[in-house]
Amino acid sequence: MPLIADSPYQAPFYQFNGHLQTIIPSLWRTVPEVRYQRERVETDDGDFLDLDWSRRPVGQPCDTLAIVSHGLEGDAGRPYVRGMVRALNHAGLDALAWNYRSCSGEMNRLLRSYHLGDTDDLDFVVRYALGTARYRRVFLTGFSAGGNVTLKYLGENAARVPKEVQRAAVFSVPTDLKASSYQIGRFENRVYLNRFMKTLRAKMRQKAALLPGQVDLTDLDALLDFPQFDDRFTAPMHGFKSADAYYAHASSGQYLSGIRIPTLLVNAQNDPFLPPSCFPRDAASGSPYLFLETPTDGGHVGFGEGTPDGDYYSERRAVQFLTAEVPG
């Protein structure tokens, strides 16, 4: 029954609520030590993915790789990704932070982009990394949307997951996408929603310019929240009849019982993005593999400690769990 009842995490005193714990790390953190080597790989459907590698120095071979999946409208350059990569490297692991389609700074080629239930691209990245013949173990980490994709990947068809994928640690995960989409639309969360909507609208305009006649921008600016946007664009562009159908397929909560490797899920109780249904206590209680930790503090993709540029609890916790002899 891997319910972790007592989390040791406490936010810095000046971050005294979930909003500050979310915003301060996002706006003021820098992680300059990380130096990526970018690799573009062609996908089987004629598109591409940009992979950002951070490997140990030449002459110090490593047989373990950690793959990091970023959040909605994020990329490998976000401070929370770079912080995790730095911590993984310091623990002696190679790291690969991959950018979803349309998230690497260049629009992808196809009408499809990425969505929160798209596990095929994660599977592609895992298998591509294993195909380098450098690694005998792979760990997965993910934040928010990337955490949802990771959990779904591990649980929807455990037989598809390569045996080299041995552990995972994810943070701030909206395991119930429909409820989360309404949660972020609440008045107190509109500052976050408006920021997401701004970048999503911009990408639709880029997509329309890239693929003339394939994207109808009518009423784009009238779409005010995720359910409206997902019903209008995300769902039909990725083969779903509606936003509700997309949320029903993509939410990772329904797949948790299928996970067959030790997996840590850390969701803060004061996360402004997460409704009560995103704390899957029953699933963790019934699984020998899913470890659920619900600290009082943390915000959304926060978990800061000490100075903004130092190590964060999410990074220390991920390294601890992934490299432990007996995770927990």
TrEMBL record:
This is Alpha/beta hydrolase. Residues 68-306 form the AB hydrolase-1 domain. The active site is at S144 (charge relay system), D271 (charge relay system), H300 (charge relay system). It holds the Pfam family Abhydrolase_1. SUPFAM superfamilies: alpha/beta-Hydrolases. Belongs to the AB hydrolase superfamily. AB hydrolase 4 family. One of its GO terms (molecular function) is short-chain carboxylesterase activity. Keywords: Hydrolase. Coiled coil: none annotated. It comes from the Bacteria. The keyword Hydrolase applies. InterPro entries: AB_hydrolase_1, AB_hydrolase_4_sf, AB_hydrolase_fold, ABHD4.
